[in-house]
Amino acid sequence: MQANVMRPVVWILALSLLSGCATFSEQFSAVERQLLQGKPEQALSTLEKAPGADRDRVLYLLNRSMLLRMTDQFEASNESLEQAKEIMKKLAATSVSETTGSLTINDATRSYVGEPFEQVMVHLIKALNYLEMGQRDSARVEVLQMDVRLRELYQKERSAYMEDPFGRYLAGMIYEELGEYSDAMVSYRKSFEAYERQLKDFGVAAPQGLKLALVRMSQRMGLNNEHKDYKQGFNIQQFQSVAQRRREGRLVFILGNGLAPKKLERTLSLRDYRYNQLHRVALPYYSKRSQRQLLGGLRLEAAGEAVEADLAEDINAIARQTLEEQMPGIKTRALARAVAKSAMVSSSRRNNDDNPWVGLIVNIATVATERADTRSWVTLPSEFYIADLGLDPGRYDINVQFIGRHGGAVDAMVLKDVEITAGRNNYHFYHWVSPASRKRN
Amino acid sequence: MNKGLTLTTAIVALATLLSACGPNVERIRPDETRDLSGMWNDTDSRLVSEEMINDALSRPWLSRFESRNGKPPAVIVGTVRNLSHEHINVQTFTNDMERALINSGRVEFVASKAERSEIREERADQDVHASAESRKAMGQELGADFMLQGTINTIIDTDGKSQVRYYQVDLTLISLADNRKVWVGQKKIKKFIENARVRY
Questions:
Q1: How far is CA B31 from the centre of its chain?
Q2: Are A19 and A75 a contacting pair, CB within 8 Å?
Q3: Considering its fold, how many domains does chain A have in total?
């Protein structure tokens, strides 16, 4: 009799416990809010105050690196990324205890190693940081490491994301600037093939700059048939040769647009009246972000020359596709957990016939710990755009126009007194998080 | 009796746990080889620089220069470019080479570009502030006869769990007078690395 009165109380207790073990994305919301309000410094200090568990170390370092580069601390950002890279390498081995944990408690008990695309992005962001600091050889090192990583992916993964066309494109640009034309040609080619192959999954076509690069570089390498095919295929009549292009310098503007999608948790709770047990299954899904926050493009203008940016990579689409591909495995593990947890409750009941509370408490614990793994590198941009503007050597004020999702400029900024040197690329990577986040200058 | 045993066991267990907490530091000799990750490390840097410089000093360009000019050649270390897959500290590598070259006593050594500019500043400062007898005149620098340049390259083959890392260091000694290459050195290192498949 008394037990029946107490039961609702215990369930209320269970619910309050549930809210206590929040998922990653719930804990991260404060950082995200400050970022969307245009306060990366505050977001950084909020993040650094709560670095989270050891198993989430990689995630902490990745997010920290993005916030550091938003506050112009490129070297610290790279240190953070390098640490993340080292931990990822150590965690590559399969863990016995963590696999057991993911089959009995939940998926988030595993150490976070990053999705394949996130592991590639580590190299890409690091390379961009180096380029922004003018360290081209170091950026080249990252590009080489990215190549190794992508080769490993190609051998291991059966996924829509086995190549990174934007990463390859950037690699080609770095090689070309350093005068390593055969490497540049190979990278441009791989990039183009990947854009073609991934078009139906991620919806990003090869940027115009890449098409011009293929035409130019195939000519330079004396690949006459390939050169002709590219020219016809892309319908390009006029283009600059490698030599002509080297007389100019370039401003390469890379725009990080918005934030990567956020995983949330979807739960299914079932009360089994026959055995008087509560079951719960929690699965992750990507939430929809408001498109209004995002830009639709970008325009660079200097000395009467203007160029529009092209979409180069859709992280949002890659992330969603990756999760979809992982879903069967996630569901299987969730099911295995449900069975294991139910067995745990039954056996604790059997062994404690005289004390019904034990079974109830075990049931509460199994339900409370059933949380989805919602961890992801949220501070990555949702999309990358790229624009490059060729200019004669000299100093320029460069006008950057941010274009909204429905066309029309929504904001602008000026890069003041930028030095353009012949044969050199001057890289700028700007991360637009929201309209409020734009730095006024 | 039994209780006492349990207690002892508990204390021993606790002590083991505690000792595992603090960092364990062990001093090792700088020339001791200890490979941790399989990446380019201090041993590689030292071995490569020593061997290559020894090779450079045993080649005919040196005696030829000495017999023609009656003095040892002046050498400067130019850039050694890191074209490898790793962020290698090229500075320690070039320093190792410089040291091996200078200490051989067979060549004279000229300060690098960055070092020179600081010295020139000091000389300009002396011009104004130092006494006439201690003042060092400008335009008396020793010009280098040869410049040492090079690259560090890698080839990596991997299947995700194991890796073959192949390093190749190429150095060239170029005559500043006429761009002649008087010596080309090459050193290769190959490492096989197998990563753990399972962890706790």
A1: 13
A2: no
A3: 1
Contact list in A for residue B196 (CB cut-off 8 A) is 93
* Chain A residues bordering chain B (beta-carbon distance below 8 Å): 82, 89-97, 137-138, 140-141, 144-145, 148, 151-152, 155-156
| Beta strand segments in A16-65, E | none
Using CB atoms, pick whichever of A90, A96, A141 lies closest to residue B198.
A96
Hey, which residues 75-104 in chain B have their CB within 8 Å of chain A? 81-87
Q: Rounded to 5 degrees, what angle do the CA atoms A183, A184, A186 make?
A: 65
Contact with chain A for residue B154, Cβ under 8 A: yes
| Any domain includes A5 | no
B36 touches A: beta carbon within 8 Å:
no
Instruction: Give the separation between CA B159 and CA A157, rounded to whole angstroms.
Output: 12
Residue A89 lies in a domain: yes
Burial A76-106 (b: 16+ CB within 10 A, else e): bbbbbbebbbebbeebbeebeebeebbbbbb
Tell me the pTM. 0.84
Residue A2 has pLDDT above 80, yes or no: no
B155: contact with A, CB 8 A cutoff = no
Residue A379 has pLDDT above 60, yes or no: yes
**H helical segments located in B41-176:** 42-57, 60-69, 90-104, 113-129
Of the candidates A147, A156, A149, the one whose C-alpha atom is nearest the C-alpha of residue A186 is A147
A139-164: average pLDDT: 90
Three-state DSSP at B151 gives strand
User: Over the range A357-375, which residues count as b (16 or more CB within 10 Å of their CB) and which as e?
Assistant: eebbbbbbbbbbbbbbbbb
Which chain B residues are within 8 Å of A97, Cβ to Cβ? 200
pLDDT digit string (tens) for A162-180?
A: 999 999 999 999 999 999 9
Domain containing A427: what range?
A: 11-206+247-437
**What is the CATH number for A356?**
1.25.40.10
CB A187 within 8 A of CB A180: no
Mean of the per-residue pLDDT values of chain A: 88
Q: Which domains does chain B have, with CATH numbers?
A: 38-194 (3.40.50)
Distance CA B197, CA A95 (A): 9
Chain B residue with minimal CA distance to A99? B200
Whether A415 is covered by a domain: the verdict is yes
Q: Does A236 reside within a domain? A: no
